[in-house]
Amino acid sequence: MTSCLYLDTPIGFFEIQGSPHGLSSVKRVEKTGKDSKKPAACVLEGRKQLQEYFARKRKQFDVLLDWREATEFHRGVWSILREIPYGHTSSYSRIAEKLGDVKKLRAVGQANRLNPIAIIVPCHRVIAKNGDLHGYFYGLDVKRKLLELENPMSFAEQGALF
């Protein structure tokens, strides 16, 4: 049985879904809905950890995830994303290299786009090889805000530090 909780964050409302198998979805929504009366433990924990993340008190997530519906390739990409440290970035090509096939660059980008567990599986930490911000399903402004939250000295908007 899937349960759901909502969370208001600096980048909008998030819907957190999961079951006893783990979190299956963390996605931004336009407005909050009704919280489940008896949410799964992982959903409660996911919300708590996200609150800590946005308060800059959590740098690593350790909540149970449910990727049963995903392909093996997507699970591989998402596992590598979880290895990118807080405040750091990686590139699409580096992830493809880690998977053993530098030609899978577009497939890595597609897996990022299909990531159902935003922030906890940090696809926002993936940038272009040349350092440019590219493709984030919530827009580059949100991607920059998340990167700035994690590393304000490297990703603050120009003039924001003065």
Give an overview in words:
The model is unreliable at 158-162 (pLDDT under 50). Strands 1-2-3 form a three-stranded antiparallel sheet, covered by helices on one side. By secondary structure, the chain is of the alpha+beta class. It has six helices and five strands.
Number of helices: 6
Strand content is 15-25%
Q: Give the strand order of the largest sheet, numbering strands 1, 2, ... along the chain.
A: 1-2-3
Given the helix and strand composition, which structural class is it?
Answer: alpha+beta
**Helical content class:** 25-40%
Shape: globular
Largest sheet: 3 strands, antiparallel
Low-pLDDT runs: 158-162
**Termini Cα gap:** 50 Å
Radius of gyration: 16 Å
Q: What is the element string, with H for helices and E for strands?
A: EEEHHEHHEHH
Task: Kindly report the average pLDDT value.
Answer: 92
Report the count of strand segments: 5
Can you describe this structure in just a few lines?
This protein has 6 helices and 5 strands. By secondary structure, it is of the alpha+beta class. A 3-stranded antiparallel sheet has the order 1-2-3, covered by helices on one side.
List the helices and strands and how they pair.
Blueprint: E1 3-9, E2 12-19, E3 22-29, H1 41-54, H2 72-81, E4 90-91, H3 92-98, H4 105-113, E5 126-127, H5 140-150, H6 152-155
Parallel strand pairs: 4-5
Antiparallel strand pairs: 1-2, 2-3
Helix pairs in contact: 3-4
Please describe the structure with a list of short key phrases separated by commas or semicolons.
three-stranded antiparallel sheet, 5 strands, two-stranded parallel ribbon, alpha+beta, single chain, 6 helices, 162 residues
